[in-house]
Amino acid sequence: MTPERPPAKTATACAYDAIKQRILEGTYQADEYVRELSIAKELEVSRTPVREALRELISEGWLEAIPHQGARVSSWSEQDAREIFEIRLHLEPLAIYKAASLIEASLLQSLQQLATRMEKLAEQPDDSTRAEIALLNHEFHRELITASKSQRLVMVLDNIVRPSTVHRNFQHYRQTDLQRSMRHHREMLDAIEAGNASWAESVMRAHLLAGRDLHTHALTPKAD
Question: For the segment 206-221, what is each residue's pLDDT rounded down to a tens digit?
Fold first, then answer.
């Protein structure tokens, strides 16, 4: 029996993926406008699917709508980063603490596969692999939060973690920073597999503290 082919991507999905990839790779910089007509010409599609993709990216925080001017890549200040990480430091360790006793075997296996994919990409990082790590990292944290089975916690953190991922694209991570982040992911999973909620909570807190310091340092204005 011939296996079914996966459904072809819609024009909107293609535009969405192309724009998001460029944001993660740094092709589109903070505060840079993403022009609907230019994207449509480049992808050889009509402006309607590009417009729909831009709306979706705005709703997710990747872009911001500027009245009478269009959509531009969202910017993030050092203060924004500190506030986001402060909230994450309170809530994400709680989420993983709950997940340690509630997670299903299938979800744990999925998280282990995500960790392995990120580890392989981190061995030889470049702009493309760093962008992919950023996407997988968001998925990893989102699935961990989902494993807490706390609907309100999931809703709050989904809106908090997403902008953190949008701007934390790993471009400023050194090889040693990436490797430490990968070790944190693996240790979280070891703690969950052992059923040790306090251990998992502790590693998540260390992971977020390291990420906060790296990110806010990168955003700190340099002296002339």
Answer: 999 998 888 777 665 5
DSSP string, 66-133: ETTTEEEEPP--HHHHHHHHHHHHHHHHHHHHHHHHH--HHHHHHHHHHHHHHHHHHTS--HHHHHHH
Q: Which residue has the tokens 């991922």?
A: 165
DSSP conformational letter for 194 = T
Q: Please give the CATH number for the structural domain made up of 11-73.
A: 1.10.10.10
Q: For residue 65, list its beta bridge partners.
A: 71
Taking domain 78-219, whether its CATH number is 2.60.40.10 is answered by no
pLDDT digits (tens, 9 = 90+) for 69-105: 999 988 777 787 788 888 999 999 999 999 999 999 9
Identity of the residue numbered 221:
P
Tokens of 149: 């089975």
Any idea which residue has 């944001």 for tokens?
A: 23
